[in-house]
Amino acid sequence: MAHYSTDHQAFRPIPNPISRIFAAIGNALVLMSTSNDRMRQVDALQALSDEDLAKRGLKRDEIARYVFNDVFWH
Q1: 5 found inside a domain
Q2: pTM of the entire predicted model
Q3: Tally of structural domains, the chain
Q4: To which H or E segment does residue 44 belong?
């Protein structure tokens, strides 16, 4: 699995408004692609039986928290 940082400001300041617009679009695309992978993971876990989820230490109502833990629940 690839790891990345969305904190691009730490590397260099963005000098002008046009560049900021394109940087914001780029950041949004990265976020969308990450969300899409996470949604596929949610779908895959939702497709499992309750017994299979229990083997993984999960309950059905914990799937979203498990998949999005690093984004929403710090």
Answers
A1: no
A2: 0.52
A3: 1
A4: helix 17-47
